[in-house]
Amino acid sequence: MPGDRVRAVITKRKRAYAEARTLEVLEPSPERIAPVAEHPGAPWQVLRYERQLVVKHEQVRDALTRIGHLDGFELDEIVPALQQWRYRNKLEYSFGTGDEGSLVCGFHAPGSWHEIVPIDDCLLASQRSNVAREQVLAWCREQGLEAFDRRTQTGFLRNLVVREGRRSGELQVRIVTGPGELDGISLAAAVDCEGLIWTRTEALAETTQGGVSEIVAGNASLQEELCGLRLSISPHAFFQTNTEMAEKLYGIAAQQADLKGWERVYDLYCGIGTVGLSLAARAGELWGLEIVEQAVADAISNARRNEIKNARFFAGDVRLALRELVEQAGRPDLMVVDPPRAGLSQKIVRRVIEAAPRRIVYISCNPTTLAPNAAQLVEAGYALRRVTPVDMFPQTPHIECVALLERA
Ligand SMILES: C[S@@+](CC[C@H](N)C(=O)[O-])C[C@H]1O[C@@H](n2cnc3c(N)ncnc32)[C@H](O)[C@@H]1O
């Protein structure tokens, strides 16, 4: 925590910075407050919320100036979250074996691969989402099912994913297991949800992606509303986990995009098309690119459902498909990029520069990867105009930003 004096071990040493893991807190920060509840997913709850915002704002400035050596841009105030707790529309739990050999469902203990801390009330999830987890756990116990043990590769139950349409009120429950049998009819009767999905996987790593999924009961996709759009979200498609703040985030992206109505817009890493579709009415044409095929199928049907006729979506890896997109669609006027935490590779940034958009709106969930990407773009003749941090994840160290770059 900011202000702590700790003993730490350095795990990564770079020229400009190092990463370390705390071994012991020697002197806790005087700013620490009592936690609301034990929760491995809410490590920053020991800081007052206002302080969390100040620290995140500083971290964005730090990343951009120290890692990216950037200056001359406007750094807006951080947009605070609308809800400090129970804001997540998606929770991924793990099954494990408790002290007395009982089945538990919760989160990994910090830094542990196999110890699962059971959770009673997950304060990042809604009450209804918590009830669904309890119902699944009670049913699994009743059935005498065992948790999968990654060390011995034995057992059955791996993960539980609970997703919620905050506006639609729908709940989707997905149970992830190893190979074996599951009495779906009985489980469906025990859990209050609009969609129940079973994923079987033999993956060695712990992941809720991949595997073979089947609908056990109810709807295959989650329905949701955002930015005036009606959206359908497949189980393996990405959707921003804080619905209310996603709307703010896309609003800021739209402001920075400042579209006049004639522009050719690219939405790279488009997921189910949310950012692009929310801009489409103010654009000439929209071209989306995304690697997960299910998400692309959602984007296409979401465009149709909302009667958006100037949007096209393609499945592909941005690294390989961007050049082809430029050949097919022509150069973009505006490029929106919203990559995963690792940001863009240097090669992808080179492809972006080649595509030569006049304006780039970069939605980033990691300022330490935004910084070198923005620096490379600045080197190539873009100017970083403005950065708006948005707090999508209270009680955690995660920071989201929207950055505007323009050809200088
Ligand atoms: C942070 S999400 C953003 C999704 C979307 N813009 C939204 O706001 O809902 C990143 C997306 O990039 C996709 N993705 C990851 N690697 C990719 C790649 N190499 N090429 C294309 N898409 C990729 C992921 O599947 C995910 O949908």
Structure description:
The longest helix is centred in the first third of the chain and has 19 residues, at 49-67. 27% of the residues lie in helices and 29% in strands. The protein contains 9 helices and 19 strands. The chain has 408 residues and is α/β, with parallel strands linked by helices. Helix 1 runs parallel beside helix 9. It has helices at 49-67, 127-142, 184-190, 243-257, 274-280, 293-305, 318-329, 346-355, 367-379, and strands at residues 5-13, 18-27, 74-75, 90-97, 103-108, 116-118, 157-164, 171-177, 195-200, 212-218, 222-226, 229-233, 264-268, 285-290, 311-315, 334-337, 359-364, 382-390, 400-407. The chain folds into 3 domains: 1-32, no CATH class; 65-82 and 242-407, Vaccinia Virus protein VP39 (Rossmann fold, 3-Layer(aba) Sandwich); 90-225, OB fold (Dihydrolipoamide Acetyltransferase, E2P), CATH 2.40.50. The strands form 4 sheets. An 8-stranded mixed β-sheet has the order 3-18-19-17-16-13-14-15, with helices on both faces. Strands 6-5-4-7-8-9-10 form a 7-stranded mixed β-sheet. Bound molecules: S-adenosylmethionine (SAM). S-adenosylmethionine is lined by residues 238-240, 269-271, 274-275, 289-292, 295, 317-319, 338-340, 365.
